[in-house]
């Protein structure tokens, strides 16, 4: 059926109407996500807390992510050292490898790589689990049993991710720096003691704190995207799969966007 | 006249241009078992979700024990749900919990009972649905479909509710297991003195568990009467449904 608002007289789609519909849909989605995020954050911050669920999620999100975070960090640190050495070699600045590795890992790569790895491992897992619960009526069952899904399902995941990401990032920072040290000492003939002294002398507490603050925000983003997409999953395996994909892509993009915004903010305030 | 435990008055619900419920009027008295029949897509599940407060009707009222609960949220809604049990079509057991934790979910989370006491009560309730203590520590995925339905029934009755909803309780079960589930439903509902609302398209189940039967068609209750009258309803829609004929006023959902 032809619609005057969406077609020109010749029957071709009206591009303005198409753009308008897209914009309205985008704003509606942002509104729904904002409301969901607000309710989840409130449920996470205000008692009563479901400590059993919180502990389970800390183990699932934090502890079980250690291998993937550790492996990613060691390779990123190693590759970073190699690239800085190669680049620095062009104008005789190889000695700055430890300084730039520790700066890059603590301020940027430790948090970003951890955030991206968890966007894959955790966000998709949360979305698939909650999506499967939705399509098998388990979320309806929770409500009929007087359990609020925001308190029972979403808040523990939100809190667990926000609490464990900084710890994971701290571990990623240490392992990433060690990855750079390994390559520098065993492949690039750096002196081990000098490398470590330069690293420690150059590192400031602010650099570490910048990464940890980013980690808290990334944790919130990762959990929220998983819970949100899972909670609006449509029926069937396709619906759950789509929720997992959307959550992972959304979380990865938002982690990178949040990283840029936070980096800009920290530069602006001189940290 | 006895005050109905549940009344739906002129309940309407639409999803966009799809008008699923077009003014449903129905009630159930304490201790009575009402079965609502209807074909696939007739709105049975939507009616149930509105009655439970999982959806809010666009128009009409829902009264529970004489009180309007249509728009209730928070504590008021929880107070209603504390008196209601629900057996979902798929069982809707929580995969991450053991069988006993599923059965005792409300006791542990809403009523804050000690785990040892909750477990004891869950095992007692499992016995009522002919399941032994040996299944208590298994996960739902480790038991059969029929056993999952029994666990879901145990979860629905553990708090001794005044009203129990059954959503397609025999779907996906073989006829013998389905009959056993029907027997358990009758036995437990009678033992509790609770009212029951069952939605189904399984006529054998409907005939067995119902005191009264109603038929939902195109979003309205088009017939209601005693279960014994279902074969003499005088309604073409009911006759077609009861006899499972493709020809008649109801178009098959193809």
From TrEMBL, chain A:
Membrane topology, record value: Multi-pass membrane protein
InterPro entries: ABC_MlaE_roteobac, Permease_MalE
A Pfam match: MlaE
Record localization: Cell inner membrane; Membrane
Sequence similarity: Belongs to the MlaE permease family.
Free-text function comment from the UniProt entry: Could be part of an ABC transporter complex.
Protein's UniProt name: ABC transporter permease
UniProtKB/TrEMBL annotation, chain B:
InterPro entries: AAA+_ATPase, ABC_transporter-like_ATP-bd, ABC_transporter-like_CS, P-loop_NTPase
Official protein name in the record: ATP-binding cassette domain-containing protein
Coiled coil: none
Keyword ATP-binding found: yes
Pfam families in UniProt: ABC_tran
Keywords per UniProt: ATP-binding, Nucleotide-binding, Transport
Residue ranges of domain ABC transporter in the record: 6-243
Gene Ontology molecular function: ATP binding; ATP hydrolysis activity
SMART domains the record matches: AAA
